[in-house]
Amino acid sequence: MLQFVKGQSKNIIVTVSDLTTLANTYYLFVFIHETTKEVINVIKPASADLSSFKYRYNKFLFASTIFANASIGKYTYTIYEQLSSSNTNVTGLNVVEFGKMDLNIASTPVNVFDEYSSPTTFSTYAG
Q1: pTM here?
Q2: Residue pLDDT, tens place only, 2-27
Q3: Ordered domains of the chain (ranges, CATH)
Q4: Rounded mean pLDDT, 41-54
Q5: CA angle (17 as vertex; 79, 77 as ends), nearest 5
Q6: Residue 74 — very low, low, confident or very high, per pLDDT cuts 50/70/90?
Q7: What's the angle, vertex CA 119, arms to CA 113 and CA 124, rounded to 5?
Q8: pLDDT computed for residue 126 by the predictor
Q9: Can you give 83-108 as a three-state secondary structure string?
């Protein structure tokens, strides 16, 4: 599962090279909100892959602005390969990966346990 925090950039790890059949490909990431059906399309060229071992995994940087206006919640995602750098129509494209994504807001914990401190008292028997 991919996890993003709204307003924060993040590197994500996927395995798109396993099923990629095109040379000089572009990857179309399609995120669909499970409740609102809101669609977010992101296109990344294969050259944007930051992985050191592209045959094992692929790493892409997602800027903080991509999900700036998106609804928080659960999404499904599908990644397609294509030759176009601008097409967002998925008809006829080859799927290279799919899964779930969670988009949250940045928050600070309200009740953080620091340490337990209570006065220690001893009762002794003097008898």
Answers
A1: 0.82
A2: 999 999 999 999 999 999 999 999 99
A3: 2-104 (2.60.40.10)
A4: 96
A5: 15
A6: very high
A7: 140
A8: 73
A9: CCCCCCCCCCCEEEEEEEEEEECCCC
